[in-house]
Structures are given as C-alpha cells and as structure tokens.
Amino acid sequence: MQTINRIGVIGAGAWGTALAKHLAEKGLETRLWAYEREVVAAINGKHENPVFLSGVALPPSLVATGSLSELTEQCEGLIFAVPSHVARPVLRELVRSISIPIPFVSATKGIEEDTLNLMTQVMTDVLPPVMHRDLMVLSGPSFATEVSAGKPAVLCLAGSDEELVKTFQTVLMTPAFRVYADNDVLGVQLGGALKNVMALAAGVVDGLDLGHNVRAALITRGLTEMVRLGVAMGADPRTFYGLSGVGDLVLTCTGSLSRNHMVGVSLGKGERLETILGNMQAVAEGVRTAKAALGLARRHRVDMPIVQEINAALFEGKSCRKAVTDLMERDAKPEKGQP
C-alpha cells in the first residue's frame, strides 16, 4: 500500500480548514490553499482562521498558501473543498500547476448549476485523463466545527480504484475519525448534494412551526426523492441508506449547526432569500443545488415534488406555507412502489 506523507487541501472554508487541521494533527505534512490573503496570513501568523472557522486553534505545522503551484509541489494527495460554484475556475488554475498525476479527493458537496455536473464530472472535464481513475469522493455526516473540536465523526470515501481508496482510508482515519470504503462515486456525491436541498425544506417546516411529525415525514419522503433520482442516474440505491445518504440527511435536516437548515428556517419565517444570504459569511450549498437538482429531475423525468416546491419558494416568490400546503394536498399515492 502506498504511503502518503505530504497532502494539500484546496479551500480554506470551514470544512477545508477542519480537514487540514485533522491531517496536520495526525502528523502529515499539510498545506492549505486559501483564496483570501487575510486567511493565509491569519493561519500562518496566528494559527487560526477567524473568517471561516473562528475560535479554533490550528496546529503550527499547518502551512497556508495562496499559490496552487506551491501547494502541489511534492504533494502526494489533494483534497478539494471549495464551494461547487467556483470549482471549475479553481480546477482550471490548478491544472497548470500539476506536472505529475496526483490522487484527488473531492470533499465538495454540490452540483454545478449550468451543466448539472457532479464534482467528479467537472474534474474529468478539466483534469488530465491520467488522473481520472484516481478521483475519490469524501462524504457523510460531518459538521466542520465538531470535526475541528476532535469530536467523533464517521464518513465514507468512494472511488473506483479499490487499493487507492484503501490507501486514503488509512490516511484519513484516526480513533475519532472513522472512514468506510465505497465504490459508488455517483451515489455518494448525489447523497451529499441533495441532502442540502432537503435541509432547506426541513428548515422551512421548522420556520413555520409545523412540528416534529411533518419534519420526520419530510426527511423520509426527501430520501425517497433522492433514491428516485439516484436510480434514474445509475447509482446504487443502497448508497442512500448509508452515511452519505440517511446519515448526512438526518444531520443536515435536524442539526443546529446546519447552514442550509438555518436558511430554510429564515425563509419559513418570511425573510427574503437575498437578505438571508447577504448576512452569511459561509456558503449554503443547498440554494444553488436546488436549481441543479430540479434540472436533473427534469432531465431524467423523475418526480421530485419537495425539490420542486423548495425551488418555487426560493426563486419564484411562492409562499412557504402555500408550498407545504401543495405538498400535503397532492393526489393520494401508495407509499411503496417504484423508487
């Protein structure tokens, strides 16, 4: 099994910073690329990221850089954790700095809005063909603040090269950070992206104060929609009952640290989307993913009523209460049947 000692993390948001901290504390030579100069300066000078992960002390061994060529120099593995809407331009810049194939782990949970591509599909568009088989996906229930505090987390790592997945499973695992191996790259990505859309809807339910009953029902029916789209796109339906499906879905729809849930709560209380997003420093991936999910549903002719209604509430001026009412008053259907 290959030994990995030097690793680069691309993206110094909360999740990228938490992963870099985790790897540096494990003893790997870790570099973290940040777009913002002030973030680079704070990490290197004060060993903290006050912009995206405030209050967390970072190990002095973690080195931040604003140069992708410096990041990739002698690098033996890359973890990609930038927001999905800037993934393609960052990858285009990155590819100029790569002289040899480097194993690549996507930790970004989103779908490209214009193309409806998943992150590994964007990567195969931009990265050289020799790197395509080395693409992996890390996903699962994992709030960055809890991981950075050393609290236990369990995730899955999916890739087509079984030995490479085992290698990075070893790289990532610690007693408090457990990683399961998987090979359903498509399903793991869909689970990680679509759960953010369902978290928006769950937040709307909570913002309207509709109670725990309907939130539990929404999570359950949301999972059905995720499976339905996944099957239509060729994913393994079992994936959605695992860590990147049910695990991440439950966390993001109920956890108090969920940005997407918080956006939904504010929507349910009548706040305008522009105001909500304007007051946020971090990215709520579900807002952009909602449009992309609806696009994929239409492309694959899949019925996703929750996704449809959350889009109407986000972008078409439909009241959240009317959206919930329309979901509740749909024609009667059997629960079991086609996914």
Question: What descriptors fit this protein?
Answer:
339 residues, 8-stranded mixed β-sheet, Rossmann fold, 2 domains, alpha/beta, 11% strand, single chain
Explain what you see.
- With 339 residues, this protein is of the alpha/beta class.
- The chain has 2 domains: 6-183, Rossmann fold; 193-328, N-(1-d-carboxylethyl)-l-norvaline Dehydrogenase, domain 2 (Orthogonal Bundle), CATH 1.10.1040.
- The protein is built from 15 helices and 8 strands.
- The protein has helices spanning 14-26, 37-46, 68-72, 87-95, 119-126, 144-148, 162-172, 185-207, 212-233, 243-254, 259-268, 273-278, 285-299, 305-315, 320-328; strands at residues 6-10, 29-33, 63-65, 78-80, 104-106, 135-139, 153-159, 177-182.
- It has an 8-stranded mixed beta sheet with strand order 3-2-1-4-5-6-7-8, with helices on both faces.
- Helix 8 packs parallel to helix 10 and helix 9 (212-233) packs antiparallel against helix 10 (243-254).
- The protein is globular.
- The protein starts with 5 loop residues before the first strand and ends in an 11-residue tail after the last helix.
- The relative contact order is 0.11.
- The model has no long low-confidence stretch (mean pLDDT 95).
